[in-house]
Inverse folding.
């Protein structure tokens, strides 16, 4: 029986990411984990529905035994079994973030012995989380670059507070492990693209978001961004809504960087577009190869890879630091080097654990 790794859920940023990442790594590594003080630093501590969905989904995929899997629980023990493929349906039950659930699931799906087909219901575009468009256009670029091909289809968007979004995820050929990567220099800028959406709202909301983002990119980068619009005729809109948002992403020779923003009641569409574009411009100006969000997300893949990975990130967040410390707490021996301070651009060198199916 593998040793039980005990994790303080209040360390570092102290949020749900610790739980999601710990459970995902537990399933892949076959190491049981006990997490206490779950989300202790949040206003409403303990497990929330979106965290519970991630735990239950990974448990089902890996045949795990779980104790403490209930809303509000401050402690959870996860004992993994064997990862398997197949078809699954999971429902967050609220507008809880589907992209955050996917962040936990994607490393696990890669180790399935057969294809996996998931349908997840919840929030696709909600505050304090990556948007589904960011996942589809930025995260999947990175996954493809390390030999992990994932298909993500948005059947219906879900915004706060009603949710109701439907996302289908398919992995036809799980790689069973990851190649190391080197993304230190991004190369020349090839184009800037984007997608501006508005559901259960007038078309001009999507248009104004896009126009504002195009103006910022033109002024700051000197290029013309190509931003597609997603909008639905009244009576033909399948969403619960209302909601809007925009993703702007820059395609370089060796990298993709993104910035996103969401609409809110009383928030002008122009501000939404400006926010997304400004985030992207800020990250590009650091000279790093990965934006502030990807700098967090790639760490798990680097840790599992067979070899040493190296990358530069626009901002060393507390999330990134927490993931590194979490991996260390679970596996014990873990070799990495980070040059840079919290809140600033950084360079990371991570020696992978060489985990294969």
């Amino acid at each position: 029986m593998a040793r039980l790794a005990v994790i303080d859920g209040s360390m570092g940023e102290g949020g749900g990411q610790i739980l999601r990442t710990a459970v995902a790594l537990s399933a892949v590594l076959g190491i049981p984990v006990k997490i206490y003080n779950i989300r202790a630093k949040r206003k409403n501590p303990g497990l929330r529905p979106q965290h519970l969905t991630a735990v239950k989904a990974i448990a089902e995929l890996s045949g795990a035994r779980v104790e403490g899997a209930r809303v509000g629980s401050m402690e959870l023990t996860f004992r993994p079994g064997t990862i398997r493929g197949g078809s699954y349906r999971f429902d967050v039950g609220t507008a809880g973030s589907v992209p955050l659930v996917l962040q936990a699931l994607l490393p696990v799906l890669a180790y399935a012995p057969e294809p996996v087909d998931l349908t997840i219901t919840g929030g696709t575009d909600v505050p304090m989380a990556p948007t589904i468009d960011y996942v589809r256009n930025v995260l999947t670029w990175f996954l493809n670059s390390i030999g992990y091909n994932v298909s993500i289809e948005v059947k219906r968007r879900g915004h706060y507070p009603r949710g109701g979004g439907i996302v289908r995820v398919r992995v036809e050929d799980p790689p069973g492990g990851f190649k190391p990567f080197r993304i230190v220099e991004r190369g020349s800028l090839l184009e800037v693209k984007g997608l501006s959406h508005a559901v259960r709202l007038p078309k001009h909301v999507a248009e104004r978001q896009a126009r504002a983002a195009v103006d910022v990119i033109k002024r700051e980068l000197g290029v013309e961004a190509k931003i597609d619009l997603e909008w639905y005729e009244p009576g033909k809109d399948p969403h619960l809504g209302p909601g809007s948002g925009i993703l702007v992403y820059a395609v370089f020779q060796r990298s993709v960087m993104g910035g996103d923003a969401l609409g809110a009641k009383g928030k002008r569409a122009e501000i939404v577009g400006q926010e997304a574009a400004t985030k992207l411009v800020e990250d590009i100006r650091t000279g790093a190869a990965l934006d502030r969000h990807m700098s967090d997300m790639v760490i798990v893949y680097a840790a599992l890879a067979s070899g040493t990975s190296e990358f530069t990130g626009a901002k060393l967040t507390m999330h990134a630091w927490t993931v590194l410390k979490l991996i260390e707490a679970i596996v014990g021996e873990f070799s990495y080097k980070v040059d840079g301070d919290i809140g600033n651009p950084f360079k990371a060198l991570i020696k992978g654990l060489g985990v294969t199916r």
Summary: The mean pLDDT is 95. The chain has four domains: 1-81, 84-176, 187-285, 290-357. Helices lie at 16-29, 49-62, 98-109, 132-145, 203-221, 269-285, 294-304, 318-331. The domain at 1-81 is CATH 3.30.110 (Translation Initiation Factor IF3).
